[in-house]
């Protein structure tokens, strides 16, 4: 169990993390979301022991995580961290990079584990290519596999799929998060991408203004966004007096209702159309199956 107990931290004098507390159970997938600059990467680095805390304590099971002042070599066997900027050996192959920390005393296990991880991150074709020839996204996948090699108990991931193109992203996410669940590896995933969260996170922490403003299971957070930061994270949303926060897909266009608006724009979004309409002189967004023309008057309701 990871226990983050009331921690605070400042770079020089500027506070970045203030009285943050939460826990992560073994094997649990926890997402850490927040705007760019909200302190996600800093919080992850604090948990890894990269900086000294101003206040509070962090534990994994019975072991206290200490900063560089008290622990000369940053990092622990049971906890691995994949940074936004990753650190690989460019002149050696993907296979060698991934196996780097595995013991040569067990060559068969080493070979087997390396092979398994290459498959998880979908780099079979590149196993014997030198890392310097890889794209940013491929390097990110090598770093991920390297962190998993010695089976940590908890993994800290900072924007783990940010450099990976859309063609690969979804299948890679499924493979990696499934692998973590199977091996009972807990993870904390800092992200600003809802697709890293939906379908995978057991719980979500929302970081805003140096603090955790929500710590909820994913369904609760999604279904009852309590502010516009949370609503905006998940998609196109509105704040309409009688309904509170409603997503564009939670409104529908009907024949008659007391809520009337005028169509301003219409965007094809793949699944259907996103209608931008003016309601009480403000823009609102409604998802609709059909295309609508600018200027048309519509009535809408909450589904
Ligand atoms: P996020 O990962 O959510 O984008 P960061 O943790 O990277 O946020 O940054 C949080 C705040 O701390 C930002 O205002 C950033 O400019 C500042 N910051 C980050 N790293 C440093 C550093 N090494 N020194 C001073 N300020 C920093
Ligand atoms: Mg960051």
TrEMBL record:
* Coiled-coil stretches noted in the UniProt entry, renumbered to this chain: none
The record's GO molecular-function terms, alphabetically, read: ATP binding; ATP hydrolysis activity
Under InterPro entries, the record lists:
AAA+_ATPase (IPR003593), ABC_SmlMolc_Importer (IPR050093), ABC_transporter-like_ATP-bd (IPR003439), ABC_transporter-like_CS (IPR017871), P-loop_NTPase (IPR027417)
Transport as UniProt keyword? yes
Keywords, comma-separated and alphabetical: ATP-binding, Nucleotide-binding, Transport
A Pfam family the protein falls into: ABC_tran
Residue ranges constituting the ABC transporter domain according to the UniProt record: 2-234
Matches recorded under PANTHER family: SPERMIDINE/PUTRESCINE IMPORT ATP-BINDING PROTEIN POTA, SPERMIDINE_PUTRESCINE IMPORT ATP-BINDING PROTEIN POTA
Query: What name appears for this protein in its UniProt entry?
Result: ABC transporter ATP-binding protein
Q: Species name for this entry? A: Paucihalobacter ruber
């Amino acid at each position: 169990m990871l226990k983050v107990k009331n921690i605070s931290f400042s770079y020089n004098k500027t506070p970045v993390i203030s009285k943050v507390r939460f826990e992560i159970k073994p094997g649990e997938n926890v997402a850490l979301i927040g705007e760019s600059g909200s302190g996600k990467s800093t919080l992850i680095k604090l948990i890894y022991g990269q900086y000294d805390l101003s206040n509070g304590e962090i534990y994994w099971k019975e072991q206290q995580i200490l900063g560089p002042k008290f622990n000369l070599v940053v990092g622990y066997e049971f906890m691995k961290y994949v940074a936004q900027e990753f650190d690989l050996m460019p002149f050696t192959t993907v296979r060698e990079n991934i196996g780097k920390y595995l013991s040569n005393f067990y060559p068969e296990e080493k070979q087997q584990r390396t092979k398994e991880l290459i498959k998880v991150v979908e780099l079979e074709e590149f196993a014997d290519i030198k890392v310097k020839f890889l794209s940013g996204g491929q390097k990110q996948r090598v770093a991920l596999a390297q962190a998993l090699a010695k089976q940590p108990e908890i993994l800290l991931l900072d924007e783990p799929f940010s450099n990976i193109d859309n063609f690969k992203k979804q299948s890679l996410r499924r493979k990696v998060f499934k692998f973590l669940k199977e091996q009972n590896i807990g993870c904390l995933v800092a992200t600003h991408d809802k697709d890293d969260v939906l379908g995978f996170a057991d719980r979500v922490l929302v970081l805003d203004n140096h603090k955790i403003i929500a710590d909820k299971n994913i369904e609760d957070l999604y279904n009852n966004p309590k502010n516009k930061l949370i609503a905006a994270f998940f998609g196109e949303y509105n704040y309409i007096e009688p309904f509170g926060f409603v997503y564009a897909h939670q409104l529908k266009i009907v024949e008659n209702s007391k809520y009337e608006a005028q169509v301003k724009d219409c965007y094809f979004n793949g699944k259907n159309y996103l209608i931008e309409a003016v309601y009480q002189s403000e823009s609102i967004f409604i998802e609709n199956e059909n295309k609508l023309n600018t200027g048309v008057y519509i009535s809408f309701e909450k589904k």
